[in-house]
Amino acid sequence: MIRVLLVDDQPLLRSGFRAMLDAEDDIEVVAEAADGAEGVALAREYLPDIALVDIQMPVMDGVEATRRIAADPALARVHVVILTNYGVDEYVFDALRAGAAGFLVKDIEPEDFLHAVRVAARGDALLAPSITRRLIDRYVTEPFRAGVGSGLAELTNRERETVALVAHGLSNDQIAERLVISPLTAKTHVNRAMVKLGVRDRAQLVVVAYESGLVTPRTG
Known about the structure:
With 220 residues, the chain is an alpha/beta fold. The protein has 2 domains: 2-126, Rossmann fold; 144-212, Arc Repressor Mutant, subunit A (Orthogonal Bundle). It is 51% helix and 13% strand. The protein is built from 10 helices and 5 strands, in the order E-H-E-H-E-H-E-H-E-H-H-H-H-H-H. It has helices at residues 11-22, 36-46, 62-71, 89-98, 110-121, 129-141, 157-167, 172-179, 183-197, 202-211, and strands at 2-7, 27-33, 50-54, 79-84, 102-105. Helix 7 packs across helix 10 (202-211). The chain is globular, with a radius of gyration of 17 Å. It comes from Cryptosporangium aurantiacum. Residues 3-121 form the Response regulatory domain.
């Protein structure tokens, strides 16, 4: 059973998301919060698998809530998925750096929404294509942050290849097919890269890959 925490200051949106999620046999909404501070407290109380967090809320916004959840060792298994509207890119980038596992736009189709929750519960990065495009564009045009990706030198060539493919949105199965290895070996490469780079999930690998210059749209 996938346990979900809803964090959004709009009751109607929470009700709509809850209705969709609770109608599924393998998903359960365990709690709801109206702001980020309440969301962090409920995450500690209920230990959900997924926290669906609105990015703009009173009291504490989604970026700070994500940062606090990601920094709490007791919540290491909680995957934060940000709920966002188009046009809030600056918050999206900040939330990725804070530890969000991915993003969904609020006008997503119901079947895509449910699929996304299941993908995030498996620990896979979840980046809406439109947001990923802007993410890439921004990292290409802005200077790389000092110190980002300093652990790249510790990666093997195959691990670097794997990180690059993760940054391009490939799943473990797709990486395995591309590199002619087993899905288990692909997963092992991803996990080892995360440990060496000190990141908590695949979304963070995407950040490191672009901010370090390992991957750009021009180099593929």
